[in-house]
Design a protein that fits this description.
Largest sheet: 5 strands, mixed
Number of strands: 5
Strand content: 25-35%
CATH topology: Beta Polymerase, domain 2
Number of helices: 3
Distance between the termini: 36 Å
Number of domains: 1
Structural class: alpha+beta
Radius of gyration: 14 Å
Strand order of the largest sheet: 3-4-2-1-5
Shape: globular
Helix content: 25-40%
Length: 114
């Protein structure tokens, strides 16, 4: 099996989450200072209206070689209000982390919701 890049894995994870979790409003990459290090986990931030407010608490998932992921990944799930706080600087990611680009919902799903 071909091993995925972090960008490819992020797109696949986001695609799945957008389809199965109705509360998912947005998914972003979180980038670390040493993002190019193969031992650095992929990190995603999910804005979800169905989650309780808990701050920045990453959930850790091990590598999934059978699915082409040779690296671990971490998922941070926050409420829309917490996302507003993050954007306004009232809530912070961990040191060395920065909010990356938004991963859009799959076109077929976005069209179905519109």
């Amino acid at each position: 099996m071909k091993m995925l890049t972090k960008e490819e894995a992020a797109a696949e994870i986001a695609d799945f989450d957008y389809q199965v979790d109705e509360g998912t409003q947005a998914i972003y990459r979180i980038l670390a200072l040493n993002e190019d290090d193969p031992d650095e986990p992929l990190k995603l931030l999910k804005v979800n209206s169905d989650t309780p407010a808990a701050g920045i608490m990453p959930l850790h998932f091990p590598p999934k070689l059978s699915q082409g992921m040779a690296f671990a990944y971490e998922l941070v799930v926050i409420t829309p209000e917490e996302f507003d706080d993050l954007r306004a600087g009232r809530l912070s990611l961990f040191d060395g982390w920065q909010l990356g680009r938004r991963i859009e919902a799959p076109r077929r799903l976005a069209e179905a919701v519109a």
